[in-house]
Every structure is written in C-alpha cells, then in structure tokens.
Design a protein that fits this description.
The chain is mainly α. The protein contains 24 helices and 13 strands. The N terminus is likely disordered.
C-alpha cells in the first residue's frame, strides 16, 4: 500500500474526536486530534497500526515542515539563502521569540507529534492481548510511537535547549496547566530510554517497508550518542549544563560508531546515487538508502507537503504555487561543489543545464541558449525559463518533483513526498565523525580515520573523492593565503565612495572548505541536518563554531544582472551581482563618517552574527505564547526519568 493514499480523516470506525485539552491550553499542548479511537474500537494489530499512520507525516508535522524546518535547519546555519521577512530574519540571525515561525515549529512538535505519540502509547498499552493482537505486536506499535516521541523530543532540545519533556499528555493537560522545562540531561535520558525500547521491540523488516524498523532506532540512537559524546566544552547560559568527561565522550562515540556499523552491515540499506534518491519516481516510497523517513501524503491542504510550493521558483515547477524565487543555496556551499559533482545537479538549478517543467516542456538556462535551441527542438529558454522574475540561479531543486515533469497534484501546498530523516550516507558519515572524535577531540586535527567512510559516500554519489589522506572536522582558515581586500562602491552623502573591506573573513574570497563540516553540508543540504551538525560542533568547541559562523558568506546571491539591457540574455554565474557585505561596510563607513548613521534604512539587512553569539542563540528562544504554560524554573528530573517516576 502506497503511503500517499492515507488520509487524516476518521477511519472505518467512524469515531468522533476526543477532547483531551481545555481551551486554556491552546498554543502549547492542545492538539486537534484527527483520528481518535476508543479502546473498545481497536482490537487487532492492523487496527493499532492504523493509529500510528499520522505520526509518519501530514497534519501533525505540517506547521513544522511548512516553514520552521527549513528556516531553522537550513537558514540559521547558512545553507539556504533567504532574506524574506520572518523567514529571512532567521537566515540573517535576527532571532526573536515573537517570530511566528518559531511558534509553528514548537507547537507542531509538542501539540502534534509528542501529544499523538503519547495518546497512542497510552491507548495501545491498555489493550488486552488476543489472537489478533499479541503482546509482541502491542510492543511493536508502542515502540513506533516511542521512536517518534524520542525524535520529536530530540529535535526540541536541540532547538530550544532546556525544554519540556512530556511523557503523559492526558495527565499534563488535565492536572498541570504549567509544566517545567527540564535539563538536557533529563531530556537525553528519556530519549535514550525511548530509543532503546524501540530498538528492542521494533521489527527488523516491517511488513510495510516505509515503517520504522529496529535499524531506524539504532541510527537515531547513534545520532543521540554522537551528540552526547560531543558535549565536552563549557557552554554558557544553561541552568543545568550538560557536559561529559573525555572518557565519557569516548564511551558515547564508541557506542555511536558500533551502532552505525550494525546499521551498515545488517539493515539491508545500500548506497545509491542522488539521482535515484531524489527522483520523482520514488518520491513517496523508500529509497535504498532510507533508514528512517517521514512521508507526506498527497491530499488536502495540511495533509501533504508544502515544501515544493515553498521552494519551487515558479508555478512551472509546482502546481498552483511556487514561492521559492528568492531562495537559493548559499554561496559557500554552492561554490564548493566541483563541476563534476553529480550532487549539485540534484541540489539546485544552475546555468548550462536542461530541465523539464510540470507540463513536460524542456527548458534551458544559460548564456548560450540561442545556440542550444538551434540544436534541440522544443526547448524554451531565456525569459521563458524564469518568466523574467526575481529568481536566483541557485534556486533549490532537491525534492522539487515538478522539475521532472511528473507532479500530479494540482492543489499546491499538499504534495506527496518522502523526507529522509536518516539515510545510509548519514550513517557512514556519523561513523566517520565518531571515529575521528575517538582519535582526537580537537576539531582542527587532521585525521586519516573517517576518510574511507566519507569516500564511500562520495563515490556512490558520483562526487569527487577527497584528494587528501586526512581530513579535519573543521578547517580554521585564518592562516590561509588570501587575496586583496574586497572593493565595493557605495553611495554616501558625499557621493559614491569606493570602500575596501579587509580580508578578516577568508570565505569572502571563495576559499573552498573541505572539512567534515562542509562535506556534511554539501551532502545533506536541504535535508534538515545542518542545524544538528552545527550544534554538535558548538558542543565540542564553541570558539571554533563561532569562527565558522563568521566565515559563512551570507552576502551573495545569483540573480539577473542589472547591466544587461536585454533581460532575455542571461549571463554566466560570474556576471551575477553580489549583495553588499552590509555589516562590514557599515562598520567601515561608521569609521569614515562618525557623525553619520549608515545602519538605518540600509537597503540590505545586516547579518547579526554578534547578537546571535552574545545572546547565546545556539538555543532558540522558546516562543512567547508557550511560556504561559511553562513553569519559570528549569528542573533536573534525571533520576525520576531513570526510575520511571517522571510525573509529566
């Protein structure tokens, strides 16, 4: 049965929704329950499996996926260039607790996924065993729900730090209007317990191949241990800091590496090309690399995925809507792809390539389109390609199914798709990272361990393999050779002034980062990994993570060059305009003209790296609306979790 056929409506029992929450709990843990079941109505294993379907995609994940996932996971780490309103504020590191996108993600995780998982766990655990529902089958369904609960809590703590831990939604909402934020140690302990249970109880080979398996739990557990093992630095801001000793770090890293090896050897997953992973033909079924995925069904608004509409440059790539014209892969990633790297073609649009629209029309974009069309019949180009809009050359292509001319949903904002949470390439790279940390926790140390695993991924994806025998987790580029200062012409009250921007940031000069940080950013761009990778970096070495934030070039976009008189004639990438490095220019201009304010009314907003770091926004602010339902003090309830006495 294809996952796309599922619908979030009352199923065969025709039961009405149950109300678990009073209206006073809106915005925090209140949940619109789309499919609710009484214990009397559920009697078989198949009935129980139906209950878990909403966890895999659709309404529970909608608000998280529609904007939060890519604004935070890709925007804050500088993978996705986007300067539009609240979305762009996160890319520009202007992060406020009143940003509505933060609320959407927060409530989706807690009101949607965690609340529903808890209800399933409670209901299924209370059922009597029978010939059609054995204890092992009950345990498997509970394990599915506990895996999703663990994943949602893991995301919550990596986004918000000291966050709520909700293991009993009904009790919380009936008896506790306010719940505590708990320490990361408490959250990690609960997540580990859920995942260990799932690892033990889930099937190795589920009857539905899109369902989570024992190896899904193992891979998530490896990600958890890799994260916990990275927590070796003193971090600011937490009431209960989570820090492990070097020996504890090695224990966690060894567990992560061993779990990864288990998944690689026994899961049955196999590396394949990016063309295969992201092909439209397999958009709603697992690829050979899929270890754990979320699946959106095609349907009404809020059921299917909004991603295609949000990212497609125009409607010619996405039925009904395409709002991705101003979004593109950031320069420091785009520029790091070798021209022979096949992954670039799947990741984004770029010149001298042919694409196919949802209507099946072939289009070509590039400086030689006239010559190209003479040799290829029925190919549109020039203005017809981007409709003369404000689109970027490096618009996102990954997961934009319309590019292959196969999109079938005409409603928009509700397409079907698979979103891999963990695929086999991630498992190989996690093992590389764990083994590197086992040898040396210094993020700048160049190591030979891990190179083989990374190269296996690169080779499978038709990407150039590492040309060095050793690789560092992070290359600190401060001492690398640099070019002359960047020159900009800016308008001042005294007229045009040429300004030299000193080369304090070598990434401004197109140096190609080759470290593990960049290898992961290239491999998993637009797959929701960059924020989690950045947090592990921060846990290991905050000072170097801060340097990395400064070294990301967020100031360039590829767009139509204003110097071109004929808008139908697009230039090559080299001819496209760069955004001003606004912050640096403002600092320089302030020194040149101390009596003038060159920050107010600037056409481009600055990148607020300093405020991000000074305000410790490595942990996002919990949305204002949620704080009403949170106790003021953070609590460490680790022992209660371990003793199975956690009250919330």
């Amino acid at each position: 049965m294809e996952f796309k056929r599922l619908r979030y409506k009352s199923l065969v029992w025709g039961l009405s929704a149950l109300a678990f929450c009073s209206t006073s709990c809106k915005d925090f843990l209140d949940v619109d329950v789309y499919d609710q079941y009484s214990t009397e109505a559920v009697s078989s294993f198949d009935d129980c499996l139906l209950m878990t379907r909403p966890l895999y995609g659709g309404r529970l994940w909608t608000e998280y996926e529609s904007k939060f996932a890519w604004c935070v996971n890709e925007g804050v780490p500088g993978v996705l260039y986007n300067v539009h309103q609240e979305e762009g504020a996160l890319f520009l590191l202007s992060i406020g607790e009143d940003n509505p996108i933060l609320k959407e993600g927060y409530t989706s995780l807690y009101s949607g996924v965690i609340s529903t998982a808890n209800q399933i766990i409670d209901k299924v655990s209370s059922l009597e065993t029978s010939a059609t529902l054995t204890k092992e089958q009950k345990d498997q369904v509970v394990a599915e729900a506990r895996l999703f609960r663990a994943y949602a809590h893991f995301l919550a703590t990596e986004y918000f730090g000291e966050a709520p831990l909700i293991l009993n939604t009904a009790a919380d909402l009936n008896d506790n209007v306010q719940v505590p934020r708990v320490s990361r140690r408490t959250l990690y302990a609960a997540i580990e317990k859920d995942l260990k249970y799932a690892e033990k109880k889930l099937a190795e080979r589920p009857s539905d191949n899109w369902r989570v398996s024992k190896y899904s739990a193992k891979a998530l557990l490896a990600k958890l241990y890799l994260t916990m093992g990275s927590c070796v630095a003193d971090l600011p801001g937490a009431k209960y800091p989570f820090k492990v000793s070097e020996s504890e770090s090695k224990d966690y890293m060894k567990k992560a590496a061993d779990l990864c090896t288990d998944v690689i050897k026994h899961s049955g997953a196999a590396l394949t090309t990016h063309e295969d992973i992201f092909s439209s033909a397999g958009r709603n079924t697992p690829s050979t690399e899929t270890i754990f995925a979320i699946y959106w069904p095609m349907g009404e608004y809020g059921e299917g995925s909004a991603y295609q509409s949000q990212m497609a440059p125009e409607e010619i790539w996405s039925p009904g809507s395409g709002w991705g014209g101003g979004k593109g892969i950031s320069y420091t990633i785009y520029n790091s792809f070798n021209s022979k790297d096949a992954r670039k073609k799947e990741l984004c649009f770029f010149v001298d390539q042919e694409y196919t629209t949802i209507s099946g029309e072939r289009v070509y974009y590039g400086p030689k389109y006239s010559e190209y069309t003479e040799k290829n019949d029925h190919v549109k180009a020039g203005d017809e390609f981007l409709n003369g809009g404000q689109c970027l050359l490096n618009n996102v292509k990954k997961y934009i199914w319309g590019v292959n001319g196969t999109a079938t949903n005409e409603k928009g904002m509700a397409t079907d798709r698979r979103q891999d949470v963990i695929r086999l390439s991630d498992v190989y790279m996690m093992r590389a990272e764990a083994n590197m940390a086992l040898e040396n926790l210094d993020v700048t140390a160049k190591l030979t361990v891990g190179v083989d695993d990374i190269n296996k991924v690169l080779k499978a994806h038709d990407a150039p393999q590492l040309d060095e025998s050793a690789i560092a987790f992070f290359d600190n580029m401060e001492n690398m050779a640099i070019k002359d200062p960047v020159k900009f012409t800016v308008q001042t009250d005294e007229g045009a002034v040429e300004v030299d921007v000193p080369v304090e940031n070598p990434m401004y000069h197109q140096l190609i980062r080759k470290d593990l940080v960049q290898q992961r950013r290239k491999e998993f761009a637009m797959e929701g990994q960059a924020w989690l990778d950045l947090k592990r970096f921060f846990y290991r070495d905050p000072a170097m993570a801060e340097k990395f934030m400064y070294q990301m070039d967020r100031g360039i976009q590829f767009s139509q060059s204003p110097e071109v008189e004929d808008n139908a004639m697009f230039q090559s990438e080299e001819g496209y305009a760069r955004r001003q490095l606004v912050h640096d220019l403002n600092v320089i201009l302030a020194g040149m003209y101390p009596d003038k304010d060159y920050t107010a009314g600037n056409e481009e907003s600055p990148v607020n790296v300093e405020s991000f770091i000074q305000n410790n926004q490595w942990y996002l602010p919990i949305p204002t609306s949620a704080k009403t339902y949170l106790q003021k003090d953070v609590q460490d309830l680790y022992n209660k979790v371990m003793d199975d006495k956690y009250p919330y």
